[in-house]
Structures are given as structure tokens and as C-alpha cells.
Amino acid sequence: MAKIVAKQLPGHRELIYYYQHSYRVKIHPGAEGKGPGSGPSQVKTESVYLGTADQVRDRCRAGFAPQKVQAKAFGWVMTVLHMIDSLGLVDAVNQYVPKRQQGLSPGVYIALGVLAQLCAPDKSWRSFGPWLQKTVVPEHWALPAHLLDAQNFWDHWDLLCPEATMPQTTDDAPILDTDTVFQVEEAVWETVQDRYQLRLDDVLYDATNCFTFFQPHTPASVAQTGHNKAGRHDHRQIGLALAATRQDGLPLLSLVYQGNCHDAKLFPESMTRLIDRITQLNRGTHHLVVICDRGNNSQKNFQDLILSSASDPAAAGERLRVDVIGGLVASQHRDLLQKPLTAYAETHGTLKVWHGKRVVYGLPATVVMTYHAGLAQKQRQSFDRQVQQAGDRLRAYGSQRTRGSLEARQARLESLRKTLRGGRYWTVTVEDSGQLVLRANRAARTLRYREHGKRLLFTTDLTLTVPEILDAYNHDKSRVEDDFRTLKAADLIRIQPIRHGTDSKIRVYALICVMALLVLKLLGRTARDAGLTMSPTVLKTELEDIQQIYLEMSTTTIQRVLTTQSTIQQQLFTVFDLNRYAPQNSAAVPLHLANG
Fold first, then answer.
1. Which residues contact 384 (CB under 8 A, 6 or more apart)?
2. Per-domain residue ranges for the chain?
3. How would you classify residue 67: left for phi > 0, otherwise alpha for psi between -120 and 50, otherwise beta?
4. What pLDDT, in 10s, does the model give residues 553-563?
5. Are 292 and 206 in contact (CB under 8 A)?
6. Which end of the chain is more exposed for a tag (fewer CB within 10 A), N or C?
7. How many CA atoms lie within 13 A of 115 on its CB side?
8. For a pLDDT cut of 70, what percent of the chain falls above it?
9. Which string of DSSP letters, residue by residue, matches 247-295?
């Protein structure tokens, strides 16, 4: 029996309150029971000091302090997992990859890989499991900690792309041809199309490379040395090509290829895969316009792509008609670049524009030439600096290398001049006196000045207007370049440096990174549709600030609350429907990913 007792202690004017609990205990430790004959017992009283009435009141108002406080990641991880679940990624993988007899399914490991790239890109696969325990994910997914070690990830990746079945890439076959990966991408995109109904008649295409820290003995055949876009030319690299939607830049198709393969050589296989993907996802698309850069230019590439799509009139209603919007190399169209500015009859924003019909790579095309004064000034400054540096280099070389005959010195200087970027704008002569004479090639410089600030574009779709061509190439094409920057950003996905040393692991890792990019892009689109336009970094930062706090009030009682949210965070909380996972919602909907 328990009660509150008031006592008047000597020397205290106020009553003092105690909590008292009376109970019986057996005198002999081995005795049990309560009835007659169960052994003698005695009454004991537990007395707990509570304090004066004012002190009891203050304690009741203040509440009781928790014994332990712990914070776990909530906002960003649950937003990412919700989008992964919405895309049906787990089912898309499990549809084509058989589940092992025990443990989690391959689809769960791929989904967790996407989570890792978006939420913990700085963590290795060995440290991902311990990191995951610091989030609320284990509460919503039944994830045994012992199944989250790196070896389990790699074993399930091998089910997706078995190393024994991976073909070695060669110069003649530079692409890692893995049908399962393409099937998984396509299954995910079926869901994307069902949900968003995206237009697939305009597609952006580009390629990049990702450096590695591989040693020469690392077996990956796809990793080769080449011109690296991050300046790591001495490292082996992996090629990655992306086809993305013009709307929002969502990655529609990914290809992994040898790091030393030229973009133009990759283009035919990429277009074949892209046309197959568009055909499978067809939602009324009969005309495809591919927007690509100059690196893919080839007469054979474009003629094979465009003429073959229109060569069978009987199948015209079933197959895609394909056109291209691209850029032209200035050196191949000097006559156009020499046109005076008075010939530019139109304007488009800050651009002066000339356009006309022309045969390009054996195909009828609309050619658009633009001039921008600010670009011309920057190019001229850069050009003058290159020419000046070339002249300084020639003078220094000529003054240092004075031995040998005049003919030998002249030959050495000519050889050096041809290797310098600005060397062609100088003439160099060694006179009979041995003096070096440099003369500016003013005619060549004048011709080059006329080319500054100008850009050449073309399209084989003769129905497009000049503004449509300029918007597609000058504005929208940058979305696929933004995709590559997002993939390589250290705080977002961090695809490089690639550390997986076999072709199969590299291909699955690339799929995970591309799926992470798709998730991130769709999250940005969802926020933007709700009127919250922000960069991926800001979106991630805002949601990362929403954490779940665990207040351990006793050994048997734990209270869960979310951190205080700013106005933007409250809006994001609503947009991404995070309340379904919040602790105060007893009817939270689980993702059911642990069951595969």
C-alpha cells in the first residue's frame, strides 16, 4: 500500500511530504507464500523524501528529466526511402534477380546502396551498417545488423551481374553489356512513366568519365587510361554515358564503357539502346530528337541513325523517326564563321543570329550561327594570352639553343612552334647573323578574331524554329551536364573515385549511382511542383536537420519526438508526407522492403 504522508519536523515551519510504501517480507529467505504456515513475516516501509509543498509543485511543473537522450537521422533518410519505395526499385530488381534462401533480397541491397550514395556518400560499405544504426531506418525496415556487412552487399551484387558471365570489354566492344541492368532500369522507368507521364520525344545525351585509384594489376577491363575530365590523366578511368529527359534531366539510360573509348565510337550502340528504351516505354512517342554535343559528330553515325529510322515506309507507324540537334566544329565551317555581323539579321536575347539551310554530314539541315559580344571579348583575351605565351616560349627557346647550324636551329624552332597552341600565329626566322626574328601572322589573327563569340548549331529536323533550336542546345542541354556534376559532387552522390575492382561490381555500382540520381532529381521535381525551388544540396541540408530524438525516461519507457522545424522544413515535411513515419503517428505505413 502506498500513500503520501505529511510530517512536521522539528525546526521546520512547513510540512514535509514523503512517499511511503508498506509491504511484507519473509523473515527467513527461503520461505514463500502468503497463507498460514508459510512462515513468519514482517512489515517494512519504503520512504522517499519529496520535499515541501512548493518543492513538489515545482517538480511537477518541470517534469522529470530523461535518463538518456539520443538523436537519429530521420528527415532525409525517410524522404529518400519513400521515393525508392514509390519507384518500385526493390521489386524491379527482384523481378530479374533470384533471391537467396536466407537473408535479405537483392532488391533490398540495391535500395540500400541507393540510400548509401544519397545519405552517406563518404562512408565505405564496411562502415555503412554501423552508420545505418544511427538512423530510424531499422525501425521501418526489418534489417538485422549482421546482414549489413560489406560482403553481403557484394555477394548480392554478384547475383545481379555475375562476374563469371561478364564479357571482357575490348576496343571493338567497349560497352559492359549487361541485360539485367538494362531490364532493371526499364522496369523502374515503367513506374516513373505511370506516375509522371513524362515526354520522351526530346532526349539529352552526353558522356563523361570517372577516375579510379586502380593499380595496374586490378582486373577491371573497363578501366583504361585516357583524357580525364577531372585532370587525372595518369589514372585509369571508367566511361559513363547518360541519356536524360529534356524535362528535368532525369536519367533515362546509362551505359558503362571503356575509359579510352571515343564518344563518337560509342554513339551507335548508345542510340540503339536509347531507341529500344523509348520504344518499350512508348506513350505515343513517334518522333525522337536527340540533343548531343560535338564529340559525337560523325557522318556515318548520323546517317545510320537518321536514314535508317526513315528507310522503311511500311513500318513508319511503328518505329521512331529520329532527328539530331548538335553543334558543329568551327574548323570545318570556316566560310560561315567569316560572315560579317551585318549578316546576322535576327536576335535572340543577347545573341545575334544567322540561320540557313545547308547539307551537314550528308544530310539536309538547318544551321544556326550565333554571336555574343561578351563571349567574343573573353575569347579574344584568352587568344591573345595564348599567342603571347607562344611568342615568349619561342624567344626563350631561341636564346637558349644557339648551337648548331642555322638550318638546324630553324628546324628546331619550327618544330616547337607547331606544338604550341598559339604558335601558328607567328612566323619564326633565324637570320644569317644568328638573330631570331619573330613576326606576327596578322592575316591569320584577323581571321581568328572574326570567329570569336560565334557558335554553330545544326538540326536535321527542318520543322524546328530558331528559338527552339537555341533553347534546346544552349539552355536545356546543360541539364545532362548538371547530372554529371551531381553524380560527382562529394556531398551528394560521389560516384568517383570508383573503388570496385571488377567489371561486374563497377556496373552494379554505376546502376546504384544512376538510380540515386533519379531519386534525387524526382525529389527536386516534387519540391519544385509544390513551389519550393532549391538546389539538391539545400534540399538535403534542410531535411537532414529533421531528426528523431529518443528520450529514455526509465528502463522501460522511451519517448520519441522530432526536432523543432523551420518554416521551410515544415513545408518539406508536408510535401514528402513524412508524417506517416513520424513517431506520433501510430498508424505509420511501413515500406515492407525487408521482405523483398
1. none
2. 2-62, 375-451
3. alpha
4. 766 677 788 98
5. yes
6. N
7. 34
8. 93
9. TTT-EEEEEEEETT--HHHHHHHHHHHHHHHHHHT-SS--EEEEE--GG
Contact by Cβ (8 Å): 525, 479: no
Q: For 136-196, what is the HEC assignment?
A: CHHHHCCCCHHHCCHHHHHHHHHHHCCHHHCCCCCCCCCECCCHHHHHHHHHHHHHHHHHH
Give 195-230 as a DSSP string: HH----SEEEEEEEEEEB---TT---TT-EE---TT
DSSP 557: -
Lookup: cell for 73: 537521422
| Cell 521546520, located at residue | 12
Measured between alpha carbons, how far is 519 from 111 in angstroms, rounded to an integer? 11
Closest by CA to 298, choosing from 241, 245, 363, 239, is: 363
CA distance 125 to 156: 13
Q: Exposed/middle/buried for 161, CB within 10 Å: 0-12, 13-18, 19+?
A: buried
**Contact assessment for residue 338 and residue 450, using Cβ atoms and an 8 Å cutoff:** yes
The C-alpha cell that represents 375 in the structure block: 563571349
| Rounded Cα distance, 418 and 427, in Å | 11
pLDDT tens-digit map of 251-303: 999 999 999 998 889 999 999 999 989 988 877 778 899 999 998 898 999 99
The DSSP H or E segment spanning 545 is: none
Nearest partner of 456 among 364, 378, 339, judged by Cα: 339
Q: What is the per-residue DSSP string for 66-126?
A: -SEEEEEE-HHHHHHHHHHHHHTHHHHHHHHSPPPSSS--HHHHHHHHHHHHHH-TTS-HH
The amino acid at 407: E
pLDDT at position 3 over 60: yes
Which residues neighbour 468 within 8 Å (Cβ) at sequence distance 6 or greater?
A: none
Q: How far apart are CA 117 and CA 145, in angstroms?
A: 19
Among 78, 75, 87, 74, smallest CA distance to 521 is for 87
Tell me the three state secondary structure of residue 481.
helix
DSSP 591: -
Contact 430, 398 (CB under 8 A): yes
Task: Indicate the helix (H) or strand (E) that contains 469.
Answer: helix 466-470
Task: Work out the average pLDDT over 543-554.
Answer: 86
Distance from C-alpha of 555 to C-alpha of 576, rounded to nearest angstrom: 34
> Residue 481 burial (CB < 10 Å; 0-12/13-18/19+)?
middle
List b or e across 412-436, with b for residues whose CB sees 16 or more CB atoms inside 10 angstroms.
ebeebbeebebbebbebebeeeeeb
For the chain, give the longest Cα–Cα distance: 134
CA dihedral 391, 394, 398, 400 (to 10 degrees): 110
- CA 337, distance to chain mean position in Å, is 37
Q: Which three cell numbers stand for residue 257?
A: 564503357
Query: Residue 128 CB: number of other CB atoms within 10 A?
Result: 19
Alpha helix (H) residue ranges in 471-563? 478-488, 503-529, 536-544
CA–CA separation, 175 and 172 (whole Å): 9
Question: Could you give the CA distance from residue 473 to residue 485 in angstroms, rounded to a whole number?
Answer: 18
Cell 510535401 found at: 575
